[in-house]
Amino acid sequence: MINSYLKLQYKLLTRHFKATGLPIMVAPLLLLGACYLAYYLLLQYPVFGSYALLLSNFQLLFLLTEKNRNDFLKNTFSKKDFYTIRLLENSIVILPTLAIFIFRGLWLYGVALIALAVIFAFLVFKTFGKSLPTPFAKKPFEFIIGFRRSYLLILVLYMLAAIGFYVTNPNLVLFCVVSIALTSMFYYQLPEPVFYLWNSRETPTRFLLGKFRRGILQCLLFVFPLLLIYAVVFSSEWFNALIVLGGIFFLLPFAITLKYVAYPREINFPEGFALALCFSFYPLILALLPFYYLKALKNLKNYL
């Protein structure tokens, strides 16, 4: 039973990957490339790189604890098989990062990662339900769904930011703010049903600009309190907070634009590659944003 389940999950993953238009043989190369980038991140920023890898695995493990998914597994498999599957899934998720930590000799982070994988195997969270209130309006929907999928990660980041203020570490606080902003960007991976756009009376330009405005405001609900306290507590470094704020004003609209360039499918490799280019060389966004904005407008004319 367990082997059949794992084979099914593998088949689903391969189908998702083939939907990007890339051959399946490219998948191991992309994984190796991602591992190399993570390793390079650790070389450049040992402390914050380790935090980033731990938090990204934290979020992935958290998503695997979703209640409906785990209820299905419990109803399908015996209790022993259920926990075996959960431990196997979590082990597979953390394996690349764990290998990087071991290779770099970061044993403490490796142990922490293993502990997270074991703990999350026994936890179930109702992350997608309607019972969790959010500070966001129903329209658009991205931040509601995204917040319910990542509220535990955001809580952890706020706790880390509080520690950063307490120990007077401005870099840790900025790391938390940037992590929250990047988490908000990933809320736009999920495309809405086509009839949502059919029901809209807005032009493509007004539609996109409205998405930009609402997305930035909702993201600021997360990060502005931290940036404001940062500017007060670390008054001599207020310019760093201004740079991060400027990044939000460009990167979030860029993520929204890529969503509607790819629409109605999900963001795949071509759009993700463009986003990765901007992360590696931020000024490139000044050229890519107008280009993809025009492509998004052209694509939206088919639906609005």
TrEMBL record:
TM helices/strands, residue ranges: 21-42, 48-64, 109-129, 150-166, 172-190, 215-233, 239-261, 273-294
The organism's place on the tree of life at top rank: Bacteria
Signal peptide: none
UniProt entry keywords in alphabetical sequence: Membrane, Transmembrane, Transmembrane helix
Protein's recorded name: ABC transporter permease
Organism for this UniProt entry: Sphingobacterium detergens
